[in-house]
Amino acid sequence: MNAEHGWQGQPPSFRPPFRLSLRVPNALKTYDVKDTAYLSSRRTVDMSSSNIRKNHPIRVAVVMAWYAPYRVPLLREVARRKEIDLSVIYCARVEAGREWKLSEKLPFSATFLQPKRITRFEYKHYFGQSSSIEYPKGLLTTLRRISPHVVIAYEYHLECMISAIYALMNRCAYVTWSDVTEIHDAHMGVFRIVMRKLLLARSKALIGSSSDTLDHICRNFGFPRPRAFLSILSSHLEDFMAPAYNDSTATRDDCDTFRLLYVGSLIPRKGIDMLIKAFASFFRAFPHSSLTIIGSGPEQENLARLVHLLGCDAAVEFRRHVPYRSMAQEMARHDVFVLPTRLDVFGLVVAEAMACGLPVICSRNAGAANDLIEGNGIIIDPDKEEELVHAFTLLAKDPPLRRRMSESALRVLKRHGLQSAVKGFVAAIHTAAGQTMLKET
What we know:
Layout: E1 58-64, H1 72-79, E2 84-90, E3 109-112, E4 114-122, E5 130-137, H2 139-146, E6 150-154, H3 158-170, E7 173-178, H4 182-185, H5 190-202, E8 203-208, H6 211-221, E9 228-230, H7 237-245, E10 258-263, H8 272-285, E11 289-294, H9 300-309, E12 316-319, H10 327-331, E13 336-339, H11 348-355, E14 360-363, H12 368-372, E15 377-380, H13 385-397, H14 399-415, H15 418-433
Parallel strand pairs: 1-2, 1-6, 2-3, 6-7, 7-8, 8-9, 10-11, 10-13, 11-12, 13-14, 14-15
Antiparallel strand pairs: 4-5
């Protein structure tokens, strides 16, 4: 990896500057939640507990930085639960740089705020990626209107700190919902780590989008494992695949070309430069192969020049944008999906490719690797070109192996479907509510 990327090779291990011990309340030790556990734990909790009053549903406010379509199915199913009265607060309409279209009507109560930018900054160690701090105007007013028993805030942004202060002042439960992993946090400064510790200290439960997230927060921040719940970030796949089910053309044609696919932003941390270099080496031995790169970003011109320099223009296709509703059909026309990312908290597109029956070549730096790659793909070091070339060669030479991986992908996703994610999410709500609503009864 180049020096400007902030580190050479694998990022260093996460080392918090200090450790905070979080005690589990005695009342929690007698409270169980049905069919939900932290990773391999067999600890269970009764979802129909008499602790939750039938005539008084748990009012839950979910505070999110922005709207994301892949979160909608999970929130929709949670909102359908009779014991939960769900409201979602979006602090912005769409994340900067995304081309998602907002649904005209969401299947749950939603409020959109108008953020006010305070400052903009650039991550020194995240490949030059920029971000900003924005004040969620109207958040406190909206929370007071909802008057929740439980506030669930996504990640550790400014709106999360405001939500935690509201929860403290109004004696309601605060829950952290996070995607971050150890590799993501490896270069976080002291201020960000302190923010995480303060919010986790206030959290009655933790919702993690991957097992890597839960392991990182419980191990490095001392969060109690019995209060940590997995709600994996692949719960939208039924909705994602729906257009493909109705399209008979969404299948791989029987040509001889071995087709590789990448979908994502064209930014340095995604590792597309290494993907192109590896493909160029592979292409010399397998001229009947192609690489499709779907996405846009500031690196597009540099990547196009690299393709030309390596002499594989005819085999590499750049497609700036494919509508979200058409992505499943497009994926199904390829043989193998590749995610060579140098850093991703999860890598949602891996699950989407698996749902389309594609074997996956996945970077070990993606949070999805440990949860989703089980006999259905190959995990590689994104900084080693030879590992990518070897993976391409292995799958190109062995179509039966690709078919077995495709079948395995669908089996893995059955274990990590929508209802599994809903169980973990609802379990966290009940755990948090059990520490606040019991005081009202």
